[in-house]
Amino acid sequence: MAYLLGVALFALAILVSVSLHEAGHMLTAKAFGMKVTRYFVGFGPTLWSFRRGETEYGVKGIPLGGFCKIVGMTPQDDDVDPADEPRAMWRYPVWKRTIVMSAGSITHFALALVTLWILAVSAGLPNPNFPSTEAEIRQEPAVVALSDCVVPDNSVRECQPGDAASPAAQANLRDGDRITSLNGQPIDNYGELLTALRGLTPGSTATIGYVRDGQPGQTRAVLAKTERPPLDDPEGAVTPVAALGVGLIPSTPTRVTYGPVAAFGATADFTGEMAVNTVHALQRIPQKIPALWQAITGGERDMDTPISVVGASRLGGEAVENNAWLVFFMLFVSLNFFIGVFNLLPLLPLDGGHIAIAWFERARSWVYARLRRPDPGRVDYLKLMPFTYAVILIGGAFTLLTITADVVNPITLFSR
């Protein structure tokens, strides 16, 4: 039930975000005097509606987004009443049209930023100083967390019957112990512990020096066997190596909580990193399509492949099921930021396509004026329809691909 509740909550959060996106278009259009005739949540048959002033508001039967109708978005709109011609959107200055068309993405950014600020002062944001690279991890003090078992191969999975118990646990080491020596060899950091273990034989007995609560101690453990690539070549061939059955407890916390004022700076820094990651994710989409197809046809799902709103909702359900509300809200932040950036891409029918055309018209008019030539007028959207349909077709196919992958082979963050 918790999982289904989480899925429903995340799907509702997405619906609210998209509805507010359309509300951003509507409110800015109305503020500039443009005529907005309809604002609806959902698509399909109308379930309920009412009219206030010149706008009809309502809810439709398919809760997959929303829309608002602004009169005269393009000069080719043929349903503009002659009385409404002066208020047609395309007649307004380019800067006003830019604000209206970007208001949807700005709404998504605002939702992401407000949520991040609230998280920064409550649950905390990811620690920017947390060790993330292999080199940083190896420089950490060898403070260990005990594993439940030693997986015999080079894979990441849950323990199974027949897996060797953790030698460290059998030697009565505890979570938080700092290993200081191995067979008399001093250990200053986690990297040195890994290197020392590689020099030992699986099945041999190792003498381990450690510090617990400031007090030194010593114990002995029979090392288990696993498979790993060379430390200096993670992509190299795996070979049998000795294993102690421990992981690293980093010396820095994974999250940092900020005061109300400091949270603004932390939110800005995190947003900057998120912007870079979003651009990189967009650039990687074409090369991830084969991986999505492989996941659908029975291969392992790559954690770095794109997900649809279905996949995001499933992850939201997992987060709620595991009481990981920070993960839930960070998914909400990431999705809103990605949608905001994606909508600004200069492609029709996205908002960014309309903005790009508006500024192209403005630049072209400026150039023609300097050349003392007649203004060429507005761009003919009808001539761009083949390109628009191509974008819709490619986008639809990609959406279908990601939804299928999220149904038949979803990405999971937690073991269920």
Automatic annotation (TrEMBL):
<keyword id="KW-0862">Zinc</keyword>
<feature type="transmembrane region" description="Helical">
    <location>
        <begin position="99"/>
        <end position="120"/>
    </location>
</feature>
<dbReference type="InterPro" id="IPR041489">
    <property type="entry name" value="PDZ_6"/>
</dbReference>
<protein>
    <submittedName>
        <fullName>RIP metalloprotease</fullName>
    </submittedName>
</protein>
<feature type="domain" description="Peptidase M50">
    <location>
        <begin position="10"/>
        <end position="364"/>
    </location>
</feature>
<feature type="transmembrane region" description="Helical">
    <location>
        <begin position="387"/>
        <end position="408"/>
    </location>
</feature>
<keyword id="KW-0645">Protease</keyword>
<dbReference type="GO" id="GO:0004222">
    <property type="term" value="F:metalloendopeptidase activity"/>
</dbReference>
<keyword id="KW-0482">Metalloprotease</keyword>
<dbReference type="InterPro" id="IPR008915">
    <property type="entry name" value="Peptidase_M50"/>
</dbReference>
<keyword id="KW-0812">Transmembrane</keyword>
<dbReference type="Pfam" id="PF17820">
    <property type="entry name" value="PDZ_6"/>
</dbReference>
<dbReference type="InterPro" id="IPR004387">
    <property type="entry name" value="Pept_M50_Zn"/>
</dbReference>
<dbReference type="Pfam" id="PF02163">
    <property type="entry name" value="Peptidase_M50"/>
</dbReference>
<keyword id="KW-0472">Membrane</keyword>
<dbReference type="InterPro" id="IPR036034">
    <property type="entry name" value="PDZ_sf"/>
</dbReference>
<comment type="similarity">
    <text>Belongs to the peptidase M50B family.</text>
</comment>
<keyword id="KW-1133">Transmembrane helix</keyword>
<keyword id="KW-0378">Hydrolase</keyword>
<dbReference type="GO" id="GO:0016020">
    <property type="term" value="C:membrane"/>
</dbReference>
<dbReference type="GO" id="GO:0006508">
    <property type="term" value="P:proteolysis"/>
</dbReference>
<feature type="domain" description="PDZ">
    <location>
        <begin position="163"/>
        <end position="203"/>
    </location>
</feature>
